[in-house]
Amino acid sequence: MTSTGATGAAALSLPGFGRTEGAVRRVYRTERRKLASQLAIRLVALICLVGPFVFTGILKVQSGSPTDTLYGVWVHSSGFAVSLVLLAFAGSWGFPIIAGIVAGDMFSSEDRYGTWKLVLTRSVTRRDVFFGKLLAAATFLIGLVVLTAVSSLLAGVLLVGDQPLVSLSGTLFSSGKSLALVLISWLECILPALAFGSLAVLFSIATRNGIMGVIGPGLVALAMQLLLLVGSGIWMHMLLVGSAFGGWHALFDAHPFYGPLLVGVIVSVLWTAACLSAAWAILGRRDFAGTPANRRPGWAIPVRVAGALVGLIALLAIAGNWGPVGVTATRLQADLIPTFNRLTILQQRELGRPVAPGARLNIVLPSCSRRGSTSRGPGDWICTLNVLIPTAGSLPPQPTPVTYDVSVQSDGCYKAQSPPAFIGQQLMRDSQGHNVVNPLYTIYGCFNTM
Amino acid sequence: MAAVRASGLAKHFESTCALDAVDLTVEEGEVRGLLGPNGAGKTTLLRILLGLVRADAGSVQLFGRPLDTSNPSALAGVAGFVEDPSFYPYLSGRVNLELLAELDGGEASARIVSVLERVGLAARAGDRLSGYSTGMKQRLGIAASLLRAPRLLLLDEPTAGLDPAGVREVGELVRELAAGGAAIVLSSHQIGEVENVCDSFTVLRRGRVVWDGTGGELQARAQASTYALGTSDDPRALEVAERREGIRAVPARDGGLVLSAEEGCLDPFALALGEAGVAVRRLELLISPLESMFYALTAEPSVDPNKPAGREERAFAET
Questions:
Q1: Which of the residues A401, B116, B148, B214 could staple to A16 if both were Cys, CB 3.0 to 4.6 A apart?
Q2: Cα–Cα distance, A147 to A149 (Å, whole number)
Q3: A37 interface with B at CB cutoff 8 Å
Q4: pLDDT averaged over chain A?
Q5: For residue B91, how many C-alpha atoms fall within 13 Å in the half-sphere facing its CB?
Q6: Quick one: B106 and B239 in the same domain?
Q7: 10 Å Cβ neighbour count for B246?
């Protein structure tokens, strides 16, 4: 069939023809309205709004804290830590699931309801429909991220307080700086969230199956979480868009480094571009020929897509050792020792003991070694710090070993915990008699793996 | 200017030939019936005209413009639906129309109230689609088409699911639009539903055109009509029928007679029955002449069903 463009003059002379320049905007408005009227979207918005308050409320009435998550031990000490813990949860699971709910059924629902023929016979092209839908999905996704960010901050500050936040280097950030960093961290997660939204769009278009589109991004996020545990090379880990959600970690170092943030931005943009290009290549070439009884989409395409994904994940797992090793004993020691040092000073000050400006612990012969067969890479480590404790009189200081079990992630962030023999219990009584978190009980830190 | 000028259209779905060298021309103000049994290619042809499916070969011009689906103006002035009209079930009928009007832009939004009234859905417009009957969805589909104030309306079996009153209303609406200059293509596999509405017909079988012409031309070639006849004395009526030219009658299974009457032979036969003292108690049209012709045109060939329709076959169909 020949296909050449019609003249605009001829087109404009006929009724039923709207202005072409606003076609994407018109699709955007209709899609926005459709999304807003869907129960699932309303429920997600409600959860994003109320969920942080419920989470913080539950934390308030119980003594425990989610110590496995970065900043988890500080949720009773600063409202900003509450927001960061929620951000960590959202980055792992929340945003991929929200992206799936918002964008994963946007295109496949037109197949399910049989409404492609309705939409594509109006005064819009399929290109207009594609971009209009993308814009609507992006608007809702960004809106839900912002809603969660604001809600988590309000919940944290209102229910816990706006106390200064302990940095990942053991220093204290003022409330103002903490607020700014938390906001930047939430904003940083918008790009990887959009990348997962693009993945949902690709699933939705490629499989024409809403279930695959909705749960697909969540499954991919799970696969990425597992892949981050495999191998010690940094390149494959950097290419996983799931790791882009952790780009904000480095901002909370006393000497922030921006490499992970930059890589996360680039990887998110690349993922978004690749997914959307593939999605448009499929949609643009597609015939809308209905679904005769003998050619129903069924599960054949989703199974094929799932098979391809499993193959891809296997390949990525094999590529886990690709590139230089990011987690080494030297880097871990170089970050843990000064952090321990600063947190010890913080602890002493909270206990009301005099600490001279510039004071530091004398740590000798530190050693970190990885448990397991290899001596480098993410996983479980043991670090021993020999602290020279001054003794009375003229006797030389005696080395006191402090051993930390350190769980190190592929992005260089770690959690270190030690038996209370030297560092004390999780809670201690400060100089005013209040129960506060012992800064040395659980140490969080991040070092640059690049 | 022709509203539709399609020539040499071909479309295959994997190994199935849906259309083969199909030509179609529809002038403004014309109501064209697109007829054929299920699987004849009617819906595929309408999908191509609506830009939903790309033809493998051939060309389409709408109002003199080549159909280019990448151009938002490609379907300017064109409306319609294929298969059953589908909408978003979680929205009301009115909101569905509002969304479509938004997509159309221009003055479409201002027509929503009037088209809902035109198709008789104004009172139920606020109800969710999931509560609509098939006939109501059909009416909403027509309303959605009317939003575009179409000059070319492509309707795929628009009376499916409608009650008799609804069928009549659709017929009146189509004639009204055609009187205003719109070109209309109605597809159906039941010629009886559209024979009184259409000016011309294109009959498809197995993806090929087996007849193309006006209703008058089709009528001229039409075969005898078939009636159900009930009388006061069926054996006597049978005897009278056997003596009449152009009349054939056989006893019906459930009583009465099945009568085949050629054009102009029915009235003399009825008079002859009266003269013979036989009262006519029931006379009901079973198959109209156009229907008879339609069945002849679309009958499956008995010799070689896989043989494509050719010149000989078309000649057979036209006899």
A1: B148
A2: 5
A3: yes
A4: 85
A5: 22
A6: no
A7: 14
User: In whole numbers, what is the pLDDT of chain B averaged over residues?
Assistant: 85
For residue B304, name the pLDDT band (cuts at 50, 70, 90). very low
Q: Give dist(CA A274, CA A272) in Å, integer.
A: 6
Question: Are residues A372 and A316 part of one domain?
Answer: no
Q: What is the dihedral of CA B287, B290, B294, B297, to 10 degrees?
A: 120
A150-A272-A148 Cα angle (round to 5): 10
In a domain, A16, yes or no: no
Let me know whether A335 and A282 are in one domain. Answer: no
- CA dihedral sign of residues A261, A265, A271, A275: positive
**pLDDT tens per residue, range B183-218:** 999 998 777 778 888 999 999 988 999 889 888 887
**Chain B nearest C-alpha distance from A12 (Å):** 8
Q: How many domains does chain A have?
A: 2
Cα distance between residue A327 and residue A320, in whole Å:
13
- Residue B277's φ and ψ, nearest 5 degrees, are 80, 20
pLDDT of residue A254: 86
CA distances from B187 to A194, B35, B159, B201 (A): 44, 6, 10, 10
Residues A17-28 have pLDDT tens digits of: 444 458 899 999
pLDDT of residue A264: 92
Give the pairing type, strands B183-188 and B31-35.
parallel
pLDDT of residue B315: 30
A244/A337 same-domain check: no
Residues 6+ apart with CB under 8 A from B220: none
Chain B: nearest CA to A204, how far in angstroms?
A: 17
Give the Cα-Cα-Cα angle A29, A32, A38 (nearest 5 degrees): 145
Q: What is the pLDDT of residue B309?
A: 38
Q: Are residues B176 and B266 in the same domain?
A: no
pLDDT at residue A256 tops 70? yes
- What interface predicted TM-score (ipTM) does this complex get? 0.74
Residue A389 has pLDDT above 80, yes or no: no
Most A CBs within 10 Å, among B12, B43, B99, to test the A interface: B99
Shortest CA gap A91–chain B (Å): 31
Distance of CA A198 to the CA centre of its chain: 16
Query: What domain range is A279 assigned to?
Result: 23-288+298-321
Whether A62 contacts A163, CB under 8 Å: no
Subunit contact B66:A116, Cβ cutoff 8 A: no
A263 and A377 share a domain? no
Amino acid type, A435 = N
> Which of B13, B88, B106 comes nearest A18 by C-beta?
B106
**Phi, psi for A443 (deg, rounded to 5):** -110, 125
**Could you tell me the residue range of the domain that residue B99 belongs to?**
2-220
User: Any idea which of A212-226, A306-320, A436-450 has the lowest mean pLDDT?
Assistant: A306-320
| DSSP annotation string for A336-369 | HHHHHHHHHHHHHHHTT----TT----EEEEEEE
> Which has more confidence, B303 or B281?
B281
